[in-house]
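2.7 Reproducibility. Because tokenized structures are sensitive to small changes in the input, we list the exact sequence used for Probable queuosine precursor transporter, including any N-terminal residues retained from the expression construct. No trimming or masking was applied before prediction.
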Amino acid sequence: MTNQTTSGVSLSAIPRSLFVFAIFYGGMVPLGGFLGAKQVAIGPLAVEAGIFPFLTLIAVSSAIAEMHGRAIADRLVRYGFVPLFIAIGLSYFVLQLPTDPGMYEPAKEAFPVIVGQSGRMMAAGILAYGVSVSLNVWLFARLKGTSGKFLAARGFVAAALSQIVDTLIFITVSFYGVRPIADLMVGQMIAKIVLSAVMVPLVIALVVRIGRKLDAEGAA
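Resulting structure tokens (single pass, no recycling of outputs):
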């Protein structure tokens, strides 16, 4: 029996995998900005912790392109701006509210530092998100061609190239004229390429596998 909303729109018209991973994607978008407040060391490499949810977004958008086509994945990327802007707006609103005097003192001091990114860094994050994730989807779809093979390799190449562009945009917009950026760019690019090789193919394969299972169950 077909499930319907009160407006008569069939829920079965939306693939189950798309519905589930669109919700997941929307939740991950603003997370990168908050986790980016921490710098993590992975062996000799240093990178913002926000790279983990960001690479997850890269992988999920590639998996959606694989299962449902580039147009759907592009739309998912654009819709990702909605939770991103809402999160930024709510963060700014909360920062303007008076702080409870009884709040735990270290948390009181740390909260504005973690949440209150500069306008320049916020703009850099928004621009880098839109360009790099859209570029990833485009590259992933172009590499697919007509064969549809080499899922892991396509995912890595698209992610690595898009992360190079992401780094160029984010570091330049955030820090140009404030500090030397060449060494910072090189270090970030190397770290992101390594993480793209390790993380992205695995997440794409997992999402595609779960997605196809969800769609098969929905069609049953």
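The mean pLDDT is 85.
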